[in-house]
Amino acid sequence: EHTTTWKQLNDHLAEWVAASKAHTADGHVASYIPELANAPADILGICIMDAEGNTVAAGDTHYHFTLQSISKVFTLILALMDNGEETVFSKVGMEPTGDDFNSMLKLELVEPGIPFNPLINAGAIAISSLIAGSSPKEQIERILQFFREIAHNPALDINQDVFKSESDTAHRNRSLAYFLKDNGVLDREVDDVLQVYFSHCSIQVSCADLARMALVLAHNGVDPIRNQRLIPRRFVQIAKTFMFTCGMYNASGEFAMNVGLPAKSGVSGSILTMVPGHYGIGLVSPALNRKGNSTAGVHLLGKLSQEFDWSLF
Ligand code: GLN
Description:
This protein is α+β, with helices and mostly antiparallel strands. It is 47% helix and 13% strand. The chain has two domains: 2-67 and 204-308, DD-peptidase/beta-lactamase superfamily (Beta-lactamase); 69-201, Beta-lactamase, CATH 3.40.710. The protein has a five-stranded antiparallel β-sheet with strand order 3-2-11-10-9. A three-stranded antiparallel β-sheet has the order 4-6-5. A hairpin with a 5-residue loop joins strand 2 and strand 3 (55-59). The longest helix has 20 residues, at 2-21. 52% of the residues are buried. The structure holds glutamine. Its EC number is 3.5.1.2. Pfam families: Glutaminase (PF04960). Substrate binds at residues 69, 121, 166, 173, 197, 249, 267. Keywords: Acetylation, Hydrolase.
């Protein structure tokens, strides 16, 4: 089955990418973080990696981009590894919201005052505060080390232009953080927590990095290429469940219906997804739909899922 799929991918991925590329015209590059507005609107790149580390790639895979909200999956995992489930779920809930990713609306509905889940901005900001370390610098260093290990790429680093751009303009995230602080969710200073949050959102990667990170999740926390466990299985299960129910924000239901795989998107137009037990997938196409997900990316994943019957259901 793997051999046939792999052959099909090698033969057709470039043509499917070319067909999905047209959908970039239906979206817009995010501009609320000024630096992201410079992204090319009409590109699409994808990399798929198997358990031996073979890759099939097509489109604009030379393009590098920042993780943005995809980072939230891995900071959640690190926070779980640092604190355990009980502490983490005293600060964030387990339920999807029907609201935009940066919404203020539902902050007070789950257990008075805690964010609905760790993948909306409010929840991810709460998670940033839980990363072990005595200073933001130490927390950021630990996050970088962890992400480099998962991606098996010691060169991963923060894009300082994106970091500064977001930090200078993040009035809404600041207000979310102050709200959380007032509700007793953050044990650290607001500015310190936000520095950590903006830093992990600004880690720069390629599609191949995303595919490798996804591969570890696809194999329940083991990097199958090195045959090395990097994350306890239970924490990967938690992360994948959130990706399935909340990973594509308030379009998670539609994505579950049309693609049927755990996934996480970022406003850079990136999507990390996987075929559990098999492949890690990373893609980027900066033009976004109204819900903040890559238009061409979602289209391409729909096509692949249909072609290979990848839906979990
Ligand atoms: N850094 C971005 C923000 O906080 C992440 C949002 C996203 O990728 N959806 O607004």
